[in-house]
Amino acid sequence: MLAQPGVPPGRRVGGGVRALPRVIHALPRAIDTDLVREQGLPSIECETLMHLSEAPDRRLRMNELAAACEMSLSGMIRVVQRLERQGYVQRVRCAQDARGWNAVLTDAGRARLRQAWPTNLAAVRRHFLDHLAGLDLKQLAEALGKVGT
């Protein structure tokens, strides 16, 4: 039976709809808590290092990095400044546009990411993947990729 406008969904769909906001807010907090407790590295900093590690020449324009991390440019600037003070990222002028800045992952930042990544993976497993026993994770990844676009 198809859903009708204004009619509450069945228990199965309704439960998923009600659970989604909790997951959207609780999962990142749980992962961040684990990363900060075990590594002293907030998840947004780990994510920033990850995006830079995967970029050509380990560099991204600040606006591209902000978009990759789903952040405002001003928020991303603050994150990069913190990482720069720790020696994990360097900001350099963009060669193509002297007004723009690139964030560049340093060797120390790459080493820090390698150190923190196992904790990040363990947190994702513990707080998310372990709860999905029996599901096809490849299909789940494809579905989540569609939702995120």
Describe what is shown at a glance:
The protein is mostly helical and 149 residues long. The protein has helices spanning 11-39, 43-54, 62-68, 73-85, 107-127, 137-147; strands at residues 59-61, 89-93, 101-105. It has a three-stranded antiparallel beta sheet with strand order 1-3-2.
Task: Reconstruct the topology from this structure.
Blueprint: H1 11-39, H2 43-54, E1 59-61, H3 62-68, H4 73-85, E2 89-93, E3 101-105, H5 107-127, H6 137-147
Antiparallel strand pairs: 1-3, 2-3
Description of the molecule:
With 149 residues, the protein is mostly helical. The protein has six helices and three strands; from the N terminus they run ααβααββαα. The protein has helices at 11-39, 43-54, 62-68, 73-85, 107-127, 137-147; strands at 59-61, 89-93, 101-105. The radius of gyration is 19 Å and the shape is globular. It starts with 10 loop residues before the first helix and ends with a helix. The model has no long low-confidence stretch (mean pLDDT 89).
